Amino acid sequence: MKTPLPDYLEHVLDECDGDDSGHLADYIPELANASPHRLALAMSTVDGEIYSVGDDDVEFTIQSMSKPFTYAYVLQQLGIDEVLEKVGVEPSGEAFNEISLGKDGRPKNPMINSGAITTHSLIPIKDNISSAEILRQFMSELAGRELCFDDSVYHSEIKTAYRNLSIGYMLRTVGILETDPVDIVNGYIRQCSILVTVKDLVRMGSVLANGGVDAQTGKRLLNRSVVRQVLSVMMSCGMYDAAGDWLTTVGIPAKSGVAGGILGVLPGQVSIAAFSPKLDEHGNSVRGIDMMERLSRDMGLHLMEGTPSAQTIVQSHYRTGQNASLSVYVLRGVLKFTEAEMLLRIFQREPVDQSTIIIDLTQISLIHDVGKRMFLEGVDRLIDDGHSLLLVDPEQRLDHARTHKDRVLHVYQDLDDLLEQKKGHHN
Ligand code: GLN
To answer: Which residues bind substrate (predicted)?
Structure first.
């Protein structure tokens, strides 16, 4: 069997192909030379599978889609508090290149140019490597290949960068920038000129979707708290003055760029990227938005739709053994807050006696920290009530459980073997 996903993506591409509306970004002269017909779409699952269609090998400049990665880099290096001193996290409701500051004197967020120029200025320089080169290396690591700068787009933007320079001078005047604003704006524009394909973008995005870990190498590249901060700001500010519209219709944290790219990241699920150079009045790709809207609708990706929690954390519960003295719980699915709460409520029904409780965790696919803590608390309370607790946890995902509150829990490999052993023991 061949998975239908590429066919589906191809179908979305075809549906959007006919729309010729929008205009090329011409304030960067080189971008006005782009072929307006280019169209590409890609998707990466959290475990690193990449599907892509259309002009998926065509490189274009990352532009503002570099902003969340610069933000991630400085957050990782300096910590969230230090970065917050310089750049806020409030949606601006203004155009991406607005020459404005928040009332508190900081740029409103790192997704508009004033905030992004500021985060660029925070990159710690070492070994005489330029800030843009540091970012190129960082983004290359995320993309899993060596990315390059587009010199002609860079020079083209530099020649007409009056607006970004005004922003730079404004930021220097109020002390948000602490060094030469021309150097910083140059570095920022160079950062925007990094070349990517939609395949690179989804690979970079999947590190964010995967909580900071590169699924293909297993390496942790960003802390979880950094990823949460970046995705939150992408959600509220990534689409500039169209952020509210985007949140209600697409509902996926995203960032657009004036070369026509859009990157969307749905935590724990997928990253998707679209490319089509013609833009709407907010500077977002017209066909890119259309494709993202369709994907979100068709695949139920809207963040606010939420996934109904599995009502089936307990796959089965039965009593067995002599005098039904063994109470067996077979669990399955994901153990997060909602499921753990449900489980504790079920454990509450266990009569207070000396019986043995067996809990089989083999089919639990993911245990969240809070799920683990709540589960162990429940186990402790069952022991306090006088029960003996036996866990089947072949992958030892609760292995510190054995010494939890100095309790010795017995952990087994296989439910059937355990039951055999217990029943034999009773007979
Ligand atoms: N380099 C562009 C600029 O600073 C990036 C803007 C964008 O992609 N929205 O104007």
So the answer is: 64, 113, 157, 164, 188, 240, 258
